[in-house]
Design brief:
Elements lengths: L3 H43 L13
Length: 59
């Protein structure tokens, strides 16, 4: 049986690692989303976006 302090230390370390990973994941997700929005913006400017095409045209 491990003592209480060791358990608390282990838990704190795991939580810290998890929070760090989660923050990195959020930053990457935000960067992906910004890239995605930029590409849509570029497509809309260039007129290659699906919504800008006539109805009969295949994508």
């Amino acid at each position: 049986m491990m003592d209480k302090q060791a358990f608390i230390d282990g838990y704190a370390a795991a939580r810290k690692a998890y929070l760090r990973r989660e923050r990195e994941r959020q930053i990457l997700a935000a960067a992906d989303y910004i890239t995605y929005r930029k590409s849509i913006h570029r497509q809309q400017r260039n007129g290659t976006f699906r919504a800008n095409r006539p109805k009969g045209v295949k994508v």
